[in-house]
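Handover notes (outgoing to incoming on-call)

Open items:
1. Cytochrome c oxidase subunit 7A2, mitochondrial: sequence verified, structure written out, both below. Nothing else pending on this one.
2. Nothing else urgent.
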Amino acid sequence: MWRNVLALRQISQRTISTASRRQIENRVPEHQKLFQEDNGLPVHLKGGAKDALLYRTTMVLTMFGTVYCMYQLVVSSMPKKQK
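Cytochrome c oxidase subunit 7A2, mitochondrial structure tokens:
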């Protein structure tokens, strides 16, 4: 039991101490230039193809959900036929 706790403690100390030594490149100015340039695109599409794919997928799912909801409302509003 104690051996597992000590091993976990040692692993956690090792990962925390090595993480602070790595330098992470600051890319905020690059992203600011990208999102502030005036190219006629809305801000939610300026990220490139991945953003466009995510936007279109969201719109398709939203439209499908809306149509399905309307269909279910129509079906539930109709009285069931008695046999």
